[in-house]
Amino acid sequence: MSKKSVEVLDTTLRDGSQGANISFTLNDKIKIALLLDELGVEYIEGGWPGSNPKDEEFFKEIKKYKLSKARIAAFGSTKRKDVSVKEDISLNSIIKADVDVAVIFGKSWSLHATEVLKVTKQDNLDIVYDSINYLRSHGLKVIFDAEHFYQGFKEDPEYALEVVKTAESAGADVIALADTNGGTPPFEVYETTKKVREVLHVKLGIHAHNDIGCAVANSLMAVKAGARHVQGTINGIGERTGNADLIQIIPTLVLKMGFNVLKGRDSLRKLREVSRIVYEILGLPPNPYQPYVGDNAFAHKAGVHVDAVMKVPRAYEHVDPSLVGNDRKFVISELSGTANLVSYLQGIGIVVDKKDERLKKALNKIKELEAKGYSFDVGPASAILITLKELNMYTNYVNLEYWKVINENNGLSIGIVKVNSQLEVAEGVGPVNAIDRALRMALQRVYPEIGEVKLIDYRVILPSEVKNTESVVRVTIEFTDNKMNWRTEGVSKSVVEASVMALVDGLDYYLQLKKTLKTSADNYIA
Amino acid sequence: MSKKSVEVLDTTLRDGSQGANISFTLNDKIKIALLLDELGVEYIEGGWPGSNPKDEEFFKEIKKYKLSKARIAAFGSTKRKDVSVKEDISLNSIIKADVDVAVIFGKSWSLHATEVLKVTKQDNLDIVYDSINYLRSHGLKVIFDAEHFYQGFKEDPEYALEVVKTAESAGADVIALADTNGGTPPFEVYETTKKVREVLHVKLGIHAHNDIGCAVANSLMAVKAGARHVQGTINGIGERTGNADLIQIIPTLVLKMGFNVLKGRDSLRKLREVSRIVYEILGLPPNPYQPYVGDNAFAHKAGVHVDAVMKVPRAYEHVDPSLVGNDRKFVISELSGTANLVSYLQGIGIVVDKKDERLKKALNKIKELEAKGYSFDVGPASAILITLKELNMYTNYVNLEYWKVINENNGLSIGIVKVNSQLEVAEGVGPVNAIDRALRMALQRVYPEIGEVKLIDYRVILPSEVKNTESVVRVTIEFTDNKMNWRTEGVSKSVVEASVMALVDGLDYYLQLKKTLKTSADNYIA
């Protein structure tokens, strides 16, 4: 396969930071930049120096680090209509940022030139030419983002082409066609990009947004049509519905289209980790459904037999999950067999034959509970506890003798527990919080390792047919000790009781792993 | 524009239910089916009758309802290799389900025939032919899902074509090409679908999965290449990374590709509501970044001037948000909203001008609460109560002075309330049930009409990004008096307090309507 290359411009720190509820500290930005450099992107768009002081700080600070491959790019607009380039604040801020690469956006949709910018079409061409020329004359490499290009081309193709030809003649090194409002369907992106490819000689790029759910596909279609530069963000963060997700685009370019991207195939193995670190920095839970890297991306549920997948994986999986740093996962549920349990147990270092009678007993218990409202694919650690008991590998670390919660109409709750003969009381912002705190206070005295355990997800579902205040409630809790995550569940007509069950299972499971099995394996079970 | 049509098969209830953490009750399934019928889909794939009893129940139960347009389809596989069609359990379960339409999947990738099914390529053709023919002979319309078609076509195009030609000759009414493992890039979907279009005469369909983030685009590309039948799920729920999201596909087909879909353009306005209700049924928070319908989909950040957007909206928005039932949102100023309230108030017989200052005040209060975790589109009756207060149309019927709940570790709870000077105590199966009972006992003495009110839905959502036992909880409750339904909500860090708030609002709202407004209008607000 001929190794054509596609270069990557990451704009997580610039366009990504425009997303709702997205905010980076200077430290966050440095951390992400180093991560992107390690991953092997060509350009890191660090910010818009003319627009805010934090971005200017970033350009200063990042200079203290030696990057292996990535070049830092500063973003800005073409010059304002009523000043000369030398007096333009935006262009001069880019120069002052003292970077190698400038990314500037300009109008390519005639409607925007005449109705928004309020200049003639010729004036806009001059603005584009002068701005690029000025930055080039200061020794900068220039990437020109043709704003609203696809919309512009649709309405006034001649003018849109004239704009990018002007950018080329002014010396732009890359011309990125932007689908700024994200509304162009993939076939149109392909046709338009192809036409531009026919008339320009410079390297073409694509900058896609996800407003019709096609940002990833549009990026691929543009490359198919000849673009060799892709702009996007980690996890697709960005304004409105987000930017194109590089985490999803890159593996397809490499594994399905034969392009050389980043530092080669090995870089793909880092994608899951990079994706997770960015979620963590943002305080967002990872998206389990994210293509390639999500926890469910290679999960097999009912209907498909584990044996069949193991035997002919390519019959069921579009790529080998390990290529993108992910794992195959078998989900435990009422429809699954002992093979699923076996693969879970392997994850915590227990090897059992799948025909073992004790496993069948455990599975029967699990099925009985599922008929009552449990769903062990959402809280598998609780299923493992049942299995450990059947296997005689369970130690009774947590013996909850009594509990009680009193909720007052100021929203506060008092939780009382008696666990392992220790009586404890705690106040909380709700009944579950109160019991959670009382439980930990009592247990931590005997098991200091409990101090490592944090609760990171708490969900309440009413799985019954009719839902009212007498219905069965299923509580699912996810725990972490920052090395591994695990999920448990509890079912009861009382939301408090169901929560207590899931809480106790979570701490119990951790103690089984740490004290009896002495495992620290990453058995993340979503 | 010539009105070519694309028909929609919704498989939320079948393929969607294979998703991790997805589980529907029979009631949920009926509710969703009715919603889909109202939306205007052609086919509702209700389940796999051979695989589990719950699906069989659904086919029985849905017969009790008169659907306006949608036809219920039962799913299954082609016959097993070692039995005749007459003895095949799967095919006969479909017939027994007594529906008009069968959807059956069969192998079209030769690897699957020989390595998974372990039959000759000819045997597989016979299986496909016989299965379709058998169902047709029982008067069923047959949709044939060609499993792994795109993979199969890539490796063994002749055979893949032979399979679908066989299906056509057996009388299949629709042949849906399935990208079962979701790994085919959009340009390949286009090319392959086009080739199939050239050799078949029957209606072609597309069934896409999102494993490389292209399910929406692949569905559009297949239609571009000649498919006129699209399969997908609401919100893209489904196994692994999910199915193609109909909520995203349909507006592009209508607004950008000129197709006639559902019941015409007006159906698009219901998309946001349908999306939200399905999230709510699943106990999942809506995705704010979802194309077209998400809260952020038409959000304009501070940098864009409100006036500019208002003046030339098409310069900034790829479609008018109201076309898909969504709103433009300005981060800096509140503009829209009062119109929504006005239309709700009309539903209960109150006519107010949308420029009324009191409405703006109410809206500000609502927005403050939404910032704290409320979401009034899921519990609008609580928003109406706030508005009635601002309009001076509120009477204080329910004055809750004090409440307390004690939960014991036998699962039972004691609820104590003092409401309208009446002290009452009740026992319940959980804290919410106990308070619910105590409240009604106290109120019913003064307001016997409360006796008509039943609770028919109760849901708990943690709307914050980080979820733990200290998180804010949103409780939504649906009430009915068998003539009208209404939904309220409560938000607190305590699930008990949030429930009490929603309970009180529900009874309060009913009394406002019955005693003050004397309305019996059917203001069902889902």
UniProtKB/TrEMBL annotation, chains A, B:
Please list the GO biological process terms of this entry.
isoleucine biosynthetic process; L-leucine biosynthetic process
Q: SMART domains of this UniProt entry?
A: LeuA_dimer (SM00917)
* GO molecular function terms attached to this record: (R)-citramalate synthase activity; 2-isopropylmalate synthase activity
| EC number of this enzyme | 2.3.3.21
Keyword flag Zinc-finger: no
Read off the Gene3D superfamilies from this record.
1.10.238.260, 3.30.160.270, Aldolase class I
- Top-level division of the source organism's lineage: Archaea
Protein name per the record? Citramalate synthase
Q: Which organism is it from?
A: Saccharolobus shibatae
